[in-house]
Specification:
alpha/beta, Spore Coat Polysaccharide Biosynthesis Protein SpsA, Chain A, seven-stranded mixed β-sheet
Length: about 210
């Protein structure tokens, strides 16, 4: 697939959906597979992203995700887990395309915008940033982000050497651009973390 930026230039972008996390608050081993409106949560995200990117992968456990039809990238560092480890493992994945950029998205954001790649790409290119990150109503949404693949060494340092616990310390080290997303009637970056969140999402999709 091709993503067209505002100038009509074709842009190659790879993408990975972070789909390996447990959900203790929902009492399930893998939140990505929780059913919403008849299909797994992760499929809602994948359906919205597939037309925006060249290659779409899942970061998580092969045994649980194997039937979804996408390449699966398992963590390459047994000592670490979480979104930062998912980003690092994906940057090492040998079957990525030669695209300069990698989009990161969570598995539990079923309302992800269908123009997300376009908007983040324009921001990251305009400022020659290492990463462009969504900011919505003043809150940084680090898992909705577009990374230049040149950040591999910085991510390796942050994860394996400095053992940073999340994205925010890394973002402070990098040349990061924050994209303030206009407020919408439905929060496009809404994450499903509880049964109440799931019920709310169902009410929006199946009114």
């Amino acid at each position: 697939m091709r993503c067209l930026n505002g100038a009509g230039i074709e842009v190659n972008v790879d993408a990975v959906i972070l789909a390996g996390g447990q959900s203790r608050r929902m009492g399930v081993p893998n939140k990505a597979l929780v059913s919403l409106a008849g299909k797994p949560l992760v499929n809602h995200v994948a359906d919205r992203l597939s037309s925006q990117v060249d290659l779409l992968c899942l970061s998580g456990n092969k045994e649980t995700l194997t039937n979804l039809g996408y390449p699966i990238i398992e963590d390459q560092c047994a000592k670490f887990s979480g979104p930062l480890a998912g980003l690092y493992s994906t940057l090492l994945y040998p079957k990525l395309t030669n695209a300069d950029y990698l989009l990161l998205a969570p598995c539990d954001g079923p309302f992800i915008p269908e123009n997300l790649v376009k908007e983040l790409y324009e921001a990251v290119v305009q400022f020659d940033a290492d990463v462009a990150v969504v900011r919505y109503e003043g809150f940084i949404q680090a898992t909705f982000s577009l990374w230049n693949k040149r950040v591999l060494d910085a991510v390796r340092q942050a994860l394996l050497v400095d053992q940073l616990g999340g994205f925010k310390p890394l973002l402070k080290r990098l040349k990061s651009e924050y994209l303030d997303w206009p407020k919408q009637k439905i929060n496009p970056f809404f994450n499903i973390n509880t049964e109440q969140d799931l019920s709310y999402a169902k009410s929006l999709l199946c009114p």
